[in-house]
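Shipment paperwork, digital attachment
Item: protein structure file
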Amino acid sequence: MSARTARRKGSIGAAVVWMFVISLLLFWLPVFGPLIAGLVGGKKAGGVGPAVVAVFFPAIALGVFFLVFSTALTGMPVVGLLAGAGGFLLAASGVGMLLVGAIVGGVLA
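Attachment content:
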């Protein structure tokens, strides 16, 4: 087996990083910035499934972060649950065009 055939098709971690960096650089393009970031990230992910995971992973991570730290700061798990759910919904509300671009990029990969 040659090195070319043994090469991995994509990486979710690389897709998350590429989507984040390109989204930051193209923040001034309201629709096309996230679309381009999703397209590149979807191609880096190597497929539709990993691309969708790469889109929602930062939102899930932010929700878990808010859940853990607000529970630790207040000592009340209910407050942590509400903060975590709010953080997830806030982060997930802005992934519309990023998700469309990731699906198209995943199909093209």
